[in-house]
Specification:
alpha/beta, Aldehyde Dehydrogenase, Chain A, domain 1, Aldehyde Dehydrogenase, Chain A, domain 2, 2 domains, six-stranded mixed β-sheet, five-stranded parallel β-sheet, Acyl-CoA reductase LuxC
Length: 353
């Protein structure tokens, strides 16, 4: 199969997904194999929502919309043009996926197939309904994918390379278990925002998206703020307010109540507004419904600290602070070439011998 065939197949998948990229699903007459797949995918969406309380209809639609916008011919071509794919030796690449947000492993799945390899997928039990159905759709629009996509719930075996995502503990296990194989091993990372006190109301409203989208469960969600001394949080809380309905979601509310009780019993100092708590803490990984913050005195020293801690950080949200910063509100809208942990997975896949 040629690269242009693989690209065209994913463009068609994006067209299919476009029907589901809003909470109000709209069937289109122009989609290939729609009579066979449309109702079935609606059912898979329902199953995904019922199976995982964090996968709300809104968050699933948001994730799908991101992939619809990514899977265009222009985007895929722009992403892949810099690479030389003429000498790829087809290998079996295993992917062990996380399940924290809907379709979180799709970029790895896409990367393996678009580079011409075969893929062996072990999904998280938290996110197991959507991808196998989309893989079946891919096989219909491009039959040469048949035999190249395998899903397993068993021990991962008979593979040439692996991309595995998990917690810090499972990452250590992965490193031991997959030693001797080409691998990308990802562990826990969090995202931070650097505030100066000059942020606008629009900046804070956008930052709220970085904090609350997917209930803060993604590695690209902001979980930590760096703020100047004597920072006034009034404007920050005002910018968060339009997300206040999040407390009406039972799983989020339960986490909010539990963490608030822990903080109060431990007599920790914290500020809260009824749906979000902020607490001074040196850690990067904050619990659900909580944002940690840390003061800084000197911008250069903060830059040095973040460089030293780059293994714990996925994104830095700021305005004019650092070269590779992410704009407020953009953390959950990565481009195809925005690689997790800044590891170029296409380059890795093309180097497998």
């Amino acid at each position: 199969m040629q690269l242009h065939q693989r690209i065209n197949a994913f463009v068609k998948l994006g067209d299919f997904l476009s029907q589901f990229s809003n909470e109000s699903i709209q069937k289109k007459d122009t989609i290939e194999h729609n009579e066979l797949f449309f109702d079935g995918f609606k059912h898979q969406l329902k199953l995904a929502e019922e199976h995982n309380g964090w996968f709300t209809k809104e968050n699933i639609a948001f994730a799908i919309k991101g992939w619809v916008e990514a899977l265009t011919h222009d985007n895929l071509t722009k992403w892949l043009t810099p690479y030389n794919m003429t000498t790829v030796s087809q290998k079996q690449v295993a992917i062990i996926m996380a399940g924290n947000i809907p379709l979180v492993g799709f970029h790895d799945f896409l990367s393996v197939l678009v580079t011409g390899h075969k893929v062996l997928v072990k999904q998280s039990s938290n996110d197991k309904h959507l991808l196998p159905y989309l893989a079946k759709y891919l096989e219909y629009v491009e039959p040469t994918f048949k035999g190249k996509i395998t899903f397993t719930e068993a021990k991962v075996e008979n593979f040439d390379a692996v991309i595995a995502t998990g917690s810090n503990n499972t990452a250590r296990y992965f490193e031991y278990y997959f030693k001797g194989k080409p691998s990308i091993i990802r562990n826990n990372r969090n995202s931070v925002a650097v505030l100066t006190g000059n942020e606008t109301e629009a900046d804070f409203k956008n930052l709220a998206e970085d904090i609350f989208r997917y209930y803060g469960l993604g590695c690209r969600n902001v979980s930590k703020l760096f703020i100047p001394k004597n920072y006034n949080f009034d404007a920050f809380f005002n910018g968060m307010y339009h997300w206040s309905p999040i407390i009406e979601k039972a799983k989020y509310a339960n986490n909010y109540d539990y963490n608030k009780a822990v903080y109060l019993m431990s007599e920790f100092d914290m500020l809260e507004n009824g749906f979000l708590m902020i607490k001074e803490d040196a850690s990067y990984a904050s619990p659900i419904a909580t944002i940690f913050y840390e003061f800084y005195d000197d911008v250069n020293q903060l830059n040095e600290k973040l460089r030293a801690d780059e293994g714990q950080i996925q994104c830095i949200v700021s305005n004019g602070f650092t070269e590779n910063e992410i704009a407020f509100g953009a953390t959950q809208k990565p481009e195809l070439w925005d690689y997790a942990d800044s590891v170029d997975s296409i380059e890795f896949l093309l180097a497998i011998q």
